[in-house]
Structures are given as C-alpha cells and as structure tokens.
Amino acid sequence: MAAETDMTEYQYSLQGLDLSQAQAAQDLLTVLKQESDTFELAEARDSLAQQEQDESLVAAAAQPQKTWLLWANAKNGKQLQVGIASIADGEVGIAILAEHQGRGLGRLTMEALIDWAKKVGYDRLWLDVDETNEVARHLYHTLGFVEVGEDTMPILLQSGRQANLVKMELILA
C-alpha cells in the first residue's frame, strides 16, 4: 500500500501578530519547539551572551519591533498557522513547521521582513544560525547576509547535541 501524501494546496500570508492571535501563536510555538532546536538555541545563546551596552545596541533598541504569524489558507477554507517570524533590535528570527518547509515560504518571509526593516529605518539585520543548517545558510547568503566573525558559538542542548552558531549580518543602508 502506497503512503498517502497530503496534496492540499495552500496560499500563504504573513500577518502582524496581535492579541487576538495570542493563543494561535502559543499553540504554534509549542509545536515548533518540539520540531526544532531553534528556540532552545536562542535561549541558551542569550544566557551566555555578555550584555554589552554599546551605542549601536542603544540605537537598535529604539527601533520598531514586530512579530508576524505565517498562515496557510487551504482551498477548502481551512486556515492554519504554520510559522512565526520577528525582528527585534535588528535580530531576525524565523521558524516554519517542517511540513511547510521547502515551498519557498522561508524566502518570501525573509524578503518581507527585510522590506519592512528598510521601511522603518533599520540599517542592518543580523541572525544566528546553526552551522549544520545548510539550507538556511544558503538562503541567507542568497539574500545578501554574510557571516561575521571567525568563531562559532558552541551551545550544548538538552538533547546532548552540540550546536555551533554562526552569526550572519545584512547591511541595509
């Protein structure tokens, strides 16, 4: 018996997160945290990072921050939240459910985030990515991000796996 594949076609949209979507966002984050180490990596990185307050960080903190939910609208009318993206203090974050990866959604989302960042006055964006995540690193490179610094940041995850974060930056000005 052949395995059945879900052939549902979706149209995707990106919507700013507001309080009316809080439960949907929380439900999505619960699933994303089970599928990926992305959020654990960010939390571990933040706890290890020095809280240096230089002029660039102070300037970045004054810039707007935004979080978006990524929605999939099926032809049958069903609407699902399939990802989340954010920009805060110049840091870009994106996570998409595994089932919806490989469809160009990451690229479209990143392009929308970059466009928004330019409109609101950011001069640069940055992110950390696991050095083994070749698909994401390739995407970021094609969008103009470059790796900065020579060293990776090792993070030991609860699973026992060691991840090595690579910092990437995109100059917008």
From TrEMBL:
SUPFAM superfamilies listed in its UniProt record: Acyl-CoA N-acyltransferases (Nat) (SSF55729)
Molecular-function GO terms, alphabetical: acyltransferase activity, transferring groups other than amino-acyl groups
Residues spanning the membrane: none
Domain N-acetyltransferase intervals: 17-171
Keywords (A to Z) from UniProt: Acyltransferase, Transferase
Record carries keyword ATP-binding: no
Pfam families: Acetyltransf_1
Record bears the keyword Phosphoprotein: no
Domain of life: Bacteria
Record-given protein name: GNAT family acetyltransferase
Organism of origin: Fructobacillus pseudoficulneus
Lineage, uppermost ranks: Bacteria, Bacillati, Bacillota, Bacilli, Lactobacillales
